[in-house]
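Morning F.,

Quick status update on the modeling queue. The single chain you submitted on Monday has been processed. Sequence for confirmation:
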Amino acid sequence: MMPRTASSRRPLPRRAGRRGFTLLETSMALIIIGVGVLAFVEAQRSFMSNNEWSSQTARAMYLANEIRELSRRLPRHDPVTGLYLETVDGNPVLRGWGPEAGEIDAGDFDDIDDLDGAVFGLEGNHAGPIDSYGNLIPETNAAGVVALDEEGHPYGLAGWTQSVKVEKVDPFNYSTVRAPAFKEDPQGSFPGRRVDQYPLRVTVSVTYRGMFDSEPREIAAVSWIVP
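Structure tokens below.
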């Protein structure tokens, strides 16, 4: 047996160590992860914003149509006194447009022109918002319990307001607004048109003012013609 010399020995192969991430690779990975997280957060924010707007629009349309339903059972002008022109000191004065004496809230209104200028809600001149029967639509909590004020009375939907505008329009062109006292005298074969013989256009604007809003925002507006 021949002795093994130093020259005949083969060196053992060295195991290569695992190479770690370089600083550049780590930075790129962090950037990719960060962009993904930001995109996810933005998508969630956009979804929540769209969902909130959809809910607000649906509620605003509901509130506008409640006023429309209320007006459906009302005549254009007061069923007792009507709408007419009275001569005072030689000048014609319109009588009967707007709420009559003693008509204070929605339950007292008995004709459509009573609604002109009415604002139902915290921002307005009447309690509100109201439903199609003129009753207050109360604020409720998550459990469905009606919210009460300090005196134990229910209060209306927080932040919501219904504003009503009633206009007299030309019977042949609804886009032409006439003054409440406008009338047409007889001319030729035309018999004339009295002050109370014109269609009405009713417009309801529904606004919302959130907790952090400096001004109310119009969410929906609905108009219709009462011939």
